[in-house]
Amino acid sequence: MTQTPPVTRQDFDAVMAPNYNPAAVIPVRGKGSRVWDQDNNEYIDLAGGIAVSALGHCHPAMVDALQAQSEQLWHLSNVMTNEPAIRLAQKLVASTFADRVYFCNSGAEANEAAFKLARRYANDHFGADKHEIISFKQAFHGRTLFTVSVGGQPKYTEGFGPVPGGLHHVPFNDLGALKAAISDRTCAVVMEPMQGEGGIVPATAEFIQGVRALCDAHNALLIFDEVQTGMGRTGHLYAYQAFGVAPDILTSAKGLGGGFPIGAMLATEQVAASLVVGTHGSTYGGNPLACAVAEAVIDQVNTPTLLAGVMTRNQKMRDALEALAAETGAFREIRGMGLLLGAEVSEAYAGQARAFLTAALEAGVMVLVAGPNVVRFAPALNIPEADLDQAMERFAVAVRKVVGQSTAAA
Predict the structure, then answer these.
(1) Fewest 10 Å CB contacts: which of 134, 200, 313, 323?
(2) Which residues are annotated as a binding site for N(2)-acetyl-L-ornithine?
(3) Which residues of this UniProt protein bind N(2)-acetyl-L-ornithine (predicted)?
(4) 8: which residues sit within 8 A by CB, 6+ positions away?
(5) In three state form, how does the secondary structure of 320-352 look?
């Protein structure tokens, strides 16, 4: 039997497109909230694959679901349906505002479907002139040309023009700006209940309620992008449930599959009716393997015990980060919801969030950034509290190192 030759980080640079610059370490194994690299170094995972690994690594329920489904049926075209897709859709409908579900492979695809549906619905009911979409500055909705254009970060569209038209961006949490921009030509307003890539910035309840009212006044659909905030991340199955405001369309991915690629667009029956046969599709959307795993995830996540545990862990993390901020002066604000938290660096460390990420990895803990000024945390929703305590201790070591280096340099 021929042995597979070992691969290195240098091999990545030789064969992969240069759009990523991954860390030097290559993880090879994960269990729960811990990951080991090629050299068997251990890390506690507070990154969660960017809020994807909702149940950590290799959760038994997910492994069992994948193994069982892998021995039954892997793929069908959408000329036919399958049992896991129907069961998952039933559970999403039963647990949310939605009446209908469309499956795809990622958050970007879910948002692409949502934006297309919004325009199609407006065209069906009000005519072609009602096609404009409003989103918010510093938003992030995916990397397709349409979704990255709807997102409010120009750096992601630079060099890819001309971008789709009919798109407008206003400041987040600024109801007056939205009121000035919205019109009867607006077909949809799309927003994250909490901006993720934009710096872990929650919407205020007043803002979300005001957005809903403005959409209603102008016959515009309200789309919630819950790719990052969904599937228990905020302590609710979906974040909108914390605000008492339901959207017309919601997009979900990331944690929905717990690490297996899947996306979903949820909609009311009235709106979904415009997605008639032939208007949209996905080769792998509703794949039996993906849907079987996602069904296992929702069964684990959508329980009072797990969702309450998210809030307990939220407080534990907040307390640790606020104490660290007071001790070191490294952070000016700790914010977020549930287990999607951000630590905004203080003025002395402006633009240096990645320095804390690098030091954290050296200390044995995986974290994220959300732009140049925010360290982001998105651990497994079920991370053992002892692991969380140890992870915060390791992060404190990393922060003290960065602060000490800065002090020494001064």
Answers:
(1) 323
(2) 143, 282
(3) 143, 282
(4) 26
(5) HHHHHHHHHCCEEEEEEECCEEEEEECHHHCCC
Residue ranges, CATH 3.90.1150.10, the chain: 9-58+304-409
**Strand locations in 192-330 (E):** 194-195, 201-202, 221-225, 249-252, 263-267
pTM of the model: 0.96
> Which two tokens mark 86?
């129907």
Q: Where in the chain is the domain with CATH 3.40.640.10?
A: 73-301
Q: Which two tokens stand for residue 35?
A: 């990951």
Within 47-151, residue ranges assigned H as helices are: 48-51, 60-70, 83-95, 107-126, 145-150
CATH 3.90.1150.10 fits 9-58+304-409, yes or no: yes
The pair of structure tokens assigned to 366 is 């995986």
Q: Which residues make up each annotated binding site for pyridoxal 5'-phosphate?
A: 107-108, 140, 225-228, 283
CATH assignment of 73-301, given 1.10.760.10, 3.50.50.60, 2.60.120.260, 3.40.640.10? 3.40.640.10
How long is the chain? 410
Whether 112 shows a pLDDT value over 90: the answer reads: yes
3-state secondary structure of 36: strand
Per the annotation, binding residues are 107-108, 140, 143, 225-228, 282-283
Q: Is 197 exposed, middle or buried (0-12, 13-18, 19+ CB in 10 A)?
A: buried
pLDDT tens digit string along 328-375? 999 999 999 999 999 999 999 999 999 999 999 999 999 999 999 999
